[in-house]
Amino acid sequence: MRGDSRESLRHTGRPVIELDLGILVYPPETDGEPWRATFTENGHRRFRQGATEARLAAKLEKVRERLSVGAANMERPGRDLIAYYLDPDRLPIGQRWSRKHAHTQRRLCERFAAPVIDAVTCQDIKTSHMQQIVNAAPTAGEGDRGRKAPAARPGGLREKVLGHLPDHPDAEFTPHEIHKVLSHSSGAIANTLDTLVKHGDAELATEKPRKFRLAGTATAPAGADSSAGSDGDLAGAA
After folding, report:
1. Could you tell me the fold of the domain covering 156-214?
2. Alpha-carbon distance 220 to 93, whole Å?
3. 125-144 residue pLDDT tens
């Protein structure tokens, strides 16, 4: 490793290699000792070591990348990045998402982004990870989807139905009622609602007629024991 060599201030006679960004490297004093390095990041003194000079240098590459841009949060997991993206306070008040759009983004992140980058350190997220997310998510479709329905990408109808339900959390709908709003065929909407039920995003409210509602919005039956309020509150919060 290239840097300015000097004597350690703490240990007389011990050589130290001073790199850029305040990184200090300590070569081994005896055979079998590892190469060591110290640096300050986010106000804390930190350490790295490697069995050889080359292995330590490889570890310091990530350290130098973070220090050069002052990005200590790059060591946090991808799940924190997703949480930040979905945080409504991230944007100015005038630019915040609608409830419908926020719900859609959360579901997309849960289904497609989280399985790929949830446990990956932010610094290690590469273009290949993002491509995996894109490949897994619905992509643009081609062709006419029917006279009454506009061209839509695969999964697009599911997103529209999923976006419609949160706008009316206390309501129950038949496929035909949603058809009047979205202009897609009642049959396609019925199939989409069945899929949402399987995924836990919607619930079948009644069998005859078949009516659906947003999952987790069922109203407690009249006369229910009010002493169960604590559990009910927790269920509603979930």
Report:
1. Arc Repressor Mutant, subunit A (1.10.10)
2. 34
3. 999 998 888 888 664 432 23
